[in-house]
Specification:
Spore Coat Polysaccharide Biosynthesis Protein SpsA, Chain A, globular, two-stranded antiparallel sheet, 32% strand, 7-stranded mixed β-sheet, single chain, 6 helices, alpha/beta
Length: 248
């Protein structure tokens, strides 16, 4: 739809807070989706990769845990040759997972999506890709009641002027960051030794002069599996989104 770019999916976490006890990774939990006019159930990571390919990513790199043979087998079986798998062997954080994945990414920008979260509307992802083509970076933002649980962005018109992680002091805005971004591959230099990617590396890039824009989505459009309790809500919202389908 919007042009050629690599996709990067991070799915190497153990999900210890999810309540799944390591038996099944969050990215393999099924959600509802619409394929060829049919309502189907597909693993979350399947939906993430499929949307990336739909909006024009030419190739997708998936960062997995080397012991996660179930996800490795699923991706390898269902997405050849569009996907490449790399492994995060040391559990040193999300920032390191992104850095490892970037070793296989080509081009000046890439689309990053956490493996356990998804924009339910493909057109929202397409809008993010388009916004990312106009600036150095693009974030996906949603208004929430309690921003202290999220990374928070401060905006001025169409520009993001700064981001902060789960603020303990009164938040500077109610615009929370979804875990999907268009970023420059040069951000890799800011990840060394960092456990987290966002917002520290993104905020540093903004303060260093990179232009960052954003798209706003409805809170219902972003579905993320945090715990076994929240999964029921994700399943419901994916069903609602798929049964009120409109073209991307």
């Amino acid at each position: 739809m919007t042009g050629s770019m690599y996709g990067l999916v991070t799915a190497a976490g153990l999900g210890t807070r999810s309540g799944l006890d390591g038996k099944l990774r969050k990215e393999l939990l099924p959600v509802y989706d619409r394929r060829d006019g049919r309502l189907v159930l597909r693993p979350m990571i399947d939906c993430v990769i499929t949307r990336m390919l739909q909006v024009g990513c030419e190739h997708v790199v998936c960062v997995l845990d080397p012991n996660d043979t179930c996800t490795e087998s699923y991706v390898s079986r269902n997405f050849p040759p569009e996907c490449e798998i790399v492994f995060q062997r040391e559990k040193t954080g999300y920032g390191e997972a992104v850095r490892i994945g970037l070793s296989r990414v080509k081009g000046s920008k890439f689309l990053l999506n956490a493996g356990d979260g998804i924009l339910l509307k493909t057109r929202s992802l397409a809008s993010l890709m388009e916004a990312g083509s106009r600036a150095d970076m693009a974030l996906c933002l949603m208004e929430v009641d309690d921003p202290r649980r999220y990374g928070v962005a401060v905006v001025d018109g169409e520009r993001v002027t700064g981001v902060e992680e789960k603020p303990h002091t009164p938040p500077k805005s109610k615009l929370a960051m979804c875990a999907v971004y268009v970023l420059p591959t040069s951000i890799r230099s800011k990840l060394a030794g960092r456990q987290e990617l966002t917002p520290p590396a993104i905020d540093e890039a903004i303060r260093g002069g990179l232009a960052c824009t954003y798209v706003r989505v409805e809170r219902e459009d972003w579905a993320s599996v945090g715990t076994k309790e929240s999964y029921l809500d994700v399943l419901r919202r994916s069903y609602d989104s798929s049964t009120t389908f409109s073209p991307p």
